[in-house]
Amino acid sequence: MNPGVLTVYRWELRKLRAQKRTYLGLGAAAIVPIIFVVALVTQNGQPEDVSFGRYLHSTGLAVPLVLLLFGSVWMFPLITALVAGDIVAAEDRHQTLKTILTRSVERHQIFAGKVLAAFTYAIAAIAITGAVALTAGILASGFNSIVSLSGTRVSAGEGLGLVGLSLLFYLVPILAIASIGLLFSTVFRNSAAAIVGTLMFSLLVQLIGILPGLGGLHPYLLSTQFNAWQGFLRSPVDWGPVIRALWVCALYAVPSLIAATLVFLRRDVAGD
Amino acid sequence: MPRVTPQAVPIEVRGLVKRYGDLVAVDQVDLTVEAGDVFGYLGPNGAGKTTSLRMMLGLIRPSAGTVRLFGRDPQLSVEALEGVAGFVEAPSFYPYLNGRENLRLLAALDGGGSASRIEESLETVGLADRAKDKVGGYSHGMRQRLGIAAALLREPKLLMLDEPATGLDPGGMRDMRDLIRQLSASGMTVLLSSHLLTEVEEVCNRVAIVRSGRVAYQGRLDDLRAQAGEGYRLRTTEDGVARRVAEAQAGISEVRPAPDGGLTFSAAGPGAVGALSLSLVESGALIEELSRRHATLEDLFFSLTEGDAAGSPAAAPAPEPEPAKA
Hints:
The structure holds two protein chains of two kinds.
Chain A (H helix, E strand, L loop, with lengths): L4 H13 L2 H23 L19 H10 L3 H10 L4 H5 L3 H5 L5 H35 L4 E2 L5 E2 L1 H33 L2 H20 L11 H4 L13 H28 L6
Antiparallel strand pairs in A: 1-2
Helix pairs in contact in A: 1-7, 2-4, 2-7, 3-7, 4-7, 4-8, 4-9, 7-8, 7-11, 8-9, 8-11
Chain B lengths: L10 E10 L2 E11 L4 E5 L6 H8 L7 E6 L14 E4 L11 H12 L7 H7 L15 H13 L5 E5 L7 H16 L3 E6 L2 H4 L5 E6 L2 E7 H9 L2 E5 L2 H10 L3 E6 L5 E5 L2 H14 L3 E6 L4 H10 L20
Parallel strand pairs in B: 3-7, 3-8, 5-6, 6-7
Antiparallel strand pairs in B: 1-2, 1-4, 8-9, 10-12, 10-13, 11-12
């Protein structure tokens, strides 16, 4: 059997498992919800001005939703960038590109395997946060019904499904962030620059979002798409933001990945 | 002759150029490495050896020229590297994986039977008992050996090694030479780069000597050796007179002042030297010393790589004052 993208992908995951930074991000993804729930239990108050904030004490289902809102500012972009920004640049740091590019896999296969691994990591981070937040939230506040954004009460079972759907859809902007991280990782050839660059990009987009006079741009900013999942928590489902998020995120992700691929295919692998 | 693929030569490089802005790192290099060769690619650091090797392995794009490995272009696909293995500069691995895991990863990227040769390759380079340690803790010499092991996984017909002896202690160098001899005897074609001729002269049959990106000499090492052996040294009471006499003498050429006094020259044969001695006595320059000068291959190497006369491969062994190389 000839080695291909799948072989590269499997080994990229194995390499991630052998590195500390992997556990730093995933650890944060697990610990933040626990800290949040502990704070919630020991304090009486709750964030009233955040969507679902007022239900935190009445149902555990509100916990992952509030964390999705809070985490979009920098936590999830940072966790995503931690690996996406490093996965190509690390080969430059260790000078290992020459080692792997003189075997029997083509450059595009190496790159595709890395893209898949970076995506997998981001998905794992969201899944971990979601699972821990649900578990801790349900333990703290119970598995109870939740009130949707339209004001209708949704049963706990149906609410759980909507939370799952929201987590799943949250991956759309997250994978766009990962794509930008991959581009920076490929172009900068430096992990720190790529990680910080990705985070800065994410924060700058949010800044544009709050600038007065640029309201017209708002629907097309990447940061806005982090709220698109809220469309699922309306009855009936508000498909507008959901569908827009799909194509807006694609507009960020696809050119980034194409540019990164071209740079990776054409670059000289020389020692610096 | 060792049995290898007969149709296409292992390495055929034509008009290879690599420019970085105004800097020409590799300048019109032509190389032919025949099956069964242990080919020394020699030159001082910065002569463009590593850059050439990177182009040969498809890691960087030539500004001009072509590379063919067994007739295939490494710029187009890694398929050209089938049957080819090696490393450029110090071999690099993932420091957070152990030696064996690094080889497993590379074997996975090779496909085929590479994975089945991991233990054997570790044995060959003497790393079997350290294979469980993370590469981050390896010494330079161990990484060098792991680099060879990684190359052997591919069961190459052509092995390309960049400065394989660099940083090795004398014992390590001897092991490396023994290994290369052994691999060559098993039918492998080997290309070695080095900045020291002495490092590789025992194992190479052919060499290319590069300076400033250009090939200054390419051919059999024996031919180079024959060139290096010629030359005489002369010391007289009247060197100025002796020089004029020698220059006028038939059969005597390349008369030059030696850096430590006296003259050096080349002679067409012993008869010409005898005739010169007679002319010298007649001119009043009394001979204090007249000896065959044993210019070493190393002298010739330095004159080719550091001398002023670029691109004069047939230059006689003019001894350089103090070779700058350690």
